[in-house]
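Database export, one record per block. Field names are fixed; values are copied verbatim from the stored entry.
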Amino acid sequence: MKIIKAILGLLIMPLRVRVFRPNKVFYNKRLAVVGPADSAYEQENGRIIDSYDLVIRMNKALITWNPANEKYLGARTDILIHNFHENMHSGGGGPLDWNLFKKFGVKYLIQPRFDKEGWHWMFNYFKKYLNTKQTIYTLPYSDNQKISNMFDGYFPTRGFFVLYSALTSHCKEVFITGFTFFKTPYAKGYRDNVRDLKDNYKHIQNQGFHNPDLEYEHFLKLIKKSPVKRITVDEKLYNILKYDSPDLIQKVRKI
């Protein structure tokens, strides 16, 4: 049975995987990028988020959804960036549940890594679900190479893939909330096993995959070079940028 499912998965995958092209999809659009940090809950920006042309979220955002948080986070999700690891407690994005995704209006489910590992994860998905109806997307190979080359052996988080795609596109506006680059905890309910900053730092070190400091450094460079004329951030990220990079603060505005 496993062999049959693997063969069927291999047959389905080329028919249901497409390349997501940010410069085309994001062109002249207003984007809201909602991350998992607790800073997204400091202001009731839900209606503002839902007013954007495209709302982008990551990994466990829909699996851990609580209706009480709608006033902070909004209710729409047009694009979900997922690492295609379905475990809930060791860095995974939770179950790939299309019944749930449809309730939020997901149009694009994106596994961003266009490399050997990324294709392996997508193969596992098709082998497991034999899904012939929904299309899965990945970022262009050229984008994956550019992003990977920034990290010197580390891997960018899925959030960084989103920020890179948005800030290098010719969209009309980007609003960023729920990103503090591990300078504040995850929001309650998202990844409670590593909400403590020290525990999360140890977790990141033990995994050896990500480098938050390097990621933040590249985020600052993206802000500096971005062609996007209107970059808006939540209050927490604005204050972080103001403290660390006063020369960049004039490129962003606070919500």
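Remark 1: The mean pLDDT is 90.
Remark 2: The chain has one domain: 2-254.
End of record.
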